[in-house]
Amino acid sequence: xxNEKNLRxxxxxxxxxxxxxxxxxxxxxxxxxxxxxxQIDDIGGDARFTVRWHSDNNQVSLNWPNxxxxxxxxxxxxxxxxxxxxxANEIEIIAVxxxxxxxxxxxxxxxxxxxxxxxxxxxxxILAPLHEPHNLAGIRAAQESFGAIPQIACFDTAFHRxxxxxxxxxxxxRYFYDxxxxxxxxxxxxxxxxxxxxxxxxPGESGGKVIIAHLGNGASMTALKGGVSIAxxxxxxxxxxxxxxxxxxxxxxxxxxxMMQREGLSANEISEILxxxxxxxxLSGGLSNDMRxxxxxxxxxxxxxxxxxxxxxxxxxxxxxxxxxxxxVIVFTGGIGSNSVMIRERVLSxxxxxxxxxxRESNRNGGTIISSKASRVLCLRINTxxxxxxxxxxxxxxxxxxxx
Length: 404
Ligand code: AMP
Description:
By secondary structure, the chain is α/β, with parallel strands linked by helices. It contains 16 helices and 13 strands. α1 (73-87) packs across α3 (132-146), α6 crosses α16 and α12 (300-324) packs across α14. The two termini are 33 Å apart. The mean pLDDT is 94. Bound molecules: adenosine monophosphate. Adenosine monophosphate binds at residues 216-217, 245, 290-292, 295, 334-336, 339-340.
């Protein structure tokens, strides 16, 4: 089923390529109006293609033209491009912006992808084996499908390259640091979007001591001073810090030694447990990685998983507040941060000692400001938009390079 749309002009395509999915979005220039979002899921299996046009907010599922689903990222992207040509043939994609999870110590800003950049990023696969290869596969596929148009890599680690050595290091022999074993921090594109929103909508407060809690399927928190990241709960990998849907969050490394030495588990088996079987899913006894399911469940394991989650969020707010010697603003974002009334209510009401006074009604009604007028800390709920950040960077770099 194709939707004929009468849109015309130049546009930026954003791509977020995961292990078996490609999320995409199209932004019309020069205003960067988002005209559609969509995703191709289960690539390599029974792939599904869904699109939501901004104009009618209607989610549509599309059939594969020759009835064979794409077998890999390259085929999926080629289907996407063919579909774009058929349904919106007056739209000219002039650049593609890619989400890339790891930019290492070198990349502290988005870059136009060259062969040299690809080589550098390929060397980082070892640091993010579950994400980086798919991000790079997305770039390669887009290069093949689009020919010469600029491909721009936007990094989740870049926002945190402002950390001091003490915020970056681990207390292990120093040569590991020199090899790149340090705290990178992730979700940087989301933090960048929220920091910009704060500057625009809360200019008086945005330069203060701010915590942004990105609570989604992946989760982390970042402390900002003067709009700049000074510390993050995520470290070397995307496992550290808060518990997540299926990832463990902070853990005593002695537990990993136990798994290896007592249980005889291999590195791959441990990786599988820590990335895919832990977090909310693991603690709820395998019930679910989805906070909605846990909130709706009467099982004691579901309640304990939520209790641990809240405990960890509070603990990290305390830790980041200590590092900044105070707290002026806290922002909740991500699927859980934006949508779970209960998690925000529990975290904030249990942190009144820090100067937080929750406005329960505003919190329940989905308000942006969810603290009372009497609260010393301004508490906010803001939806994040990583795609928009990618599109803006892609547009700016393309303008610089080609003078669009
Ligand atoms: P994200 O990775 O940011 O898309 O967040 C996805 C997660 O948000 C899901 O796994 C859910 O756990 C959570 N979520 C989405 N909507 C709600 C909601 N209304 N209440 C609680 N959790 C939610």
